[in-house]
Amino acid sequence: MQRTRLIFLPTLWILLLLAGCRGEADKTSESRPNRPISGVETVEARLQEIDVIFSASGTIRAASHSTLTSKIMGNVTRMMVREGDRVEKGEALLEIESQDIGARVRQARGALESAEAALRNAEANFNRISELFSRGSATRFELDGATLQLDSAKGRVKQAKGAVKEARTMKQYALIRAPVAGVVTRKRVEVGDQAAPGRPLVEFEDRSRLQFETFVPESKLSSLKIGQKVEVAINALSDERIAGSIAEMEPSSDPVSHSAKIKIDLKEAKGALSGMYGRALIPTGKRHAVLIPQKAVVKRGQLTAVYLLDKEQTFHFRLIQTGKLFRDQIEVLSGLEGGERIAVSKLDQLEDGTEVRE
């Protein structure tokens, strides 16, 4: 019993001491003068019409993306580019072995020379028979035979020229060139690899025009149209907003996801790269909201407030609930109705009840 009393007495003494300290602190706080202040900048909380924004996640893509494939069989003998290299239109990217193609070109040229020689002979024979026929020294049958021989020779020359053209075209296929100016995004083969018709060789994209691809619910499609202005916030660029416009819309909704793909042309997408993730901020309507500068908001623990200036030129600590951000403005959901004047400077020097010094 005595031990219990000894424990209780020190505990009671500590509680009394704390209560006394708190009482002194309250008295000090109550007795502290609330000094008038001057030079505080104020702005008006504005009730205004704003866009209703729908946010849709997506990815930046190049508007023109190509996968170059081989049209001939052969080994890759030279690779002139690396991934990430910027190249101009027509610049060589890689070369495929073309020995067989070279032999085919020579063979086609030889066949053409032979056909042209046969044509010259047929023309000479036709001219000779025609002359004899006009003098009655050759029959109609002989003239018809010479004519048929000439036509046949002309056909063989035309066929041989086509073979030469085809062989030369095949030789051009051995040197893969950039279809447009752009960037090599991926190499699918290396030197020594076997190229075959249809096999991908190089992935290539034109970054002069970037698009943002995203999917929107079918319920939002009726409020969208081609050419509509939107903004895209890119995560990797610290949510920097890039202006754009809707360039393409799928004509129908996917029956599984109940959404449709849209493509947004990006304008002056400085620093943006293909593959970057972001959000399309798409206006779908209008509404009214109270907006104030972000710098007017005061945080006190879990409380959010502003300093409101009344008609008697006195500041009051007004609790508010905030909503969405609009660049340097923030929406006020409750606590302000619009038209009030609030402080945007010297917030650390203000208290509830601070008066403005004239």
Relevant terms:
39% strand, alpha+beta, disordered N terminus, Elongation Factor Tu (Ef-tu), domain 3, Helix Hairpins, 19 strands, five-stranded antiparallel beta sheet, single chain, six-stranded antiparallel β-barrel, 358 residues
Please, could you describe this protein's structure?
The protein is an alpha+beta fold and 358 residues long. Among the domains are: 53-63 and 210-285, Beta Barrel (Elongation Factor Tu (Ef-tu), domain 3); 98-172, Helix Hairpins. The chain is 28% helix and 39% strand. The chain has three helices and 19 strands. The strands form three sheets. The chain has a six-stranded antiparallel barrel with strand order 2-9-12-11-10-13. Strands 1, 14, 15, 16 and 19 form a five-stranded antiparallel beta sheet that branches. Helix 2 packs antiparallel against helix 3 (140-173). Mean pLDDT is 84; it is low at 1-32.
Compact summary:
The chain is α+β, with helices and mostly antiparallel strands.
| CATH fold assignment of the domain at 53-63 and 210-285 | Elongation Factor Tu (Ef-tu), domain 3
The CATH superfamily of the domain at 53-63 and 210-285 is identified as: Efflux pump adaptor protein, beta barrel domain
Assign the structural class, choosing from mainly alpha, mainly beta, alpha/beta, alpha+beta, or little secondary structure.
Answer: alpha+beta
Largest sheet: 6 strands, antiparallel, barrel
User: Given the C-alpha coordinates, what overall shape results?
Assistant: rod-shaped
Number of helices: 3
Distance between the termini: 68 Å
Q: Which range best describes the helical content: under 10%, 10-25%, 25-40%, 40-55%, 55-70% or over 70%?
A: 25-40%
Mean pLDDT: 84
CATH class type of the domain at 53-63 and 210-285: Mainly Beta
- DSSP, total strands: 19
N to C succession of SSEs: HEEEEEHHEEEEEEEEEEEEEE
Using only CA atoms, what is the Rg? 42 Å
Q: Biggest sheet: strands side by side, in what order?
A: 2-9-12-11-10-13
In percent, how much strand structure appears in the residues?
Answer: 35-45%
The second-level CATH architecture of the domain at 53-63 and 210-285 is: Beta Barrel
Low-confidence stretches: 1-32
